[in-house]
Amino acid sequence: MNNWIYNEFKHCGVNYSDIEQAEIYDNQHQKFRDYEKEFIDFLSNLSLDNYHNVTMIDLGCGTGATSLYASKYFKKIYAIDVSELMIKQVIKKSEKENITNIEFINSGFLSYEHKAEPVDIVLTKSALHHLPDFWKQVALLRINKMLKPSGIFYLFDVIYHFQPTEYINKIDNFISAFEAMAGEQFKAEVETHIRDEFSTFSWIMEGMLARAGFEVEKIRTSDGFVMEYYCKKVRDIALP
Ligand SMILES: C[S@@+](CC[C@H](N)C(=O)[O-])C[C@H]1O[C@@H](n2cnc3c(N)ncnc32)[C@H](O)[C@@H]1O
């Protein structure tokens, strides 16, 4: 591997390679998330005629918030994460439920080589912000290659969607809202996210999506922070 390639396994900000973090993840997140509801909402926005044959890659799958539900509807899921410990959590859950159509791979946006047929959907939820912008662009180019023509790319992440001059109030309010929902410990995690991770502005993300061969078909945000992009692959990207 080239010596200049970003080391995506080293974890910036919240350390998902920490056993305690992996074990408390679901408890913390379920204070403000309903994984099943999130997946049904995602599915209803896809307007697929038939989802039983759908194949999907979940990049940054974590403890399986999406992969586990997707496995009940779709044919095959590739669940990818740089944290072995997060993957261990989702493997435990999938074994309990006798789920057999998820392949778990300890890899990441910049290192995962998709050897099987290109998939119908690539999804990434709350994970792309772990890469600095240059590497986000590289990740998006690589995602293009994993998808079939007209395949769907769904991006859910903290992406700033407000005027830059408003940043102090916006960020303070965002942190307070999470503190109210999930307590002191999660407040500290959101502070870490803002300070040490690489969330970017929506117009930067949209420029990167276009350059990676994606057309944005739908954007959703309720608070100017959490953004959802439903994209279609409209052209193939040639990579050396
Ligand atoms: C906030 S969690 C989100 C997990 C899951 N997608 C969810 O919705 O709950 C972020 C996950 O991204 C993973 N991650 C961080 N950098 C990554 C990378 N470069 N490639 C793949 N996964 C990465 C972390 O290990 C962690 O499991």
| Cofactors and ligands | S-adenosylmethionine
- Helical amount among residues, as a percent range? 40-55%
Average pLDDT, rounded to a whole number, is 95
Number of helices: 7
Shape: globular
Give the strand tally: 7
The fourth-level CATH homologous superfamily is: Vaccinia Virus protein VP39
Beta-strand level of the residues, as a percent range?
15-25%
Radius of gyration: 17 Å
Distance between the termini: 14 Å
Based on helices, strands and strand pairing, what is the structural class?
Answer: alpha/beta
CATH class descriptor name: Alpha Beta
How would you characterize this protein structure?
Helix content is 40%, strand content 21%. By secondary structure, the protein is of the alpha/beta class. It has one domain (19-160, 200-233): Rossmann fold (3-Layer(aba) Sandwich). A 7-stranded mixed beta sheet has the order 3-2-1-4-5-7-6, sandwiched between helices. The longest helix has 30 residues, at 167-196. It is globular. It starts with 18 loop residues before the first helix and ends in a 7-residue tail after the last strand. Bound molecules: S-adenosylmethionine.
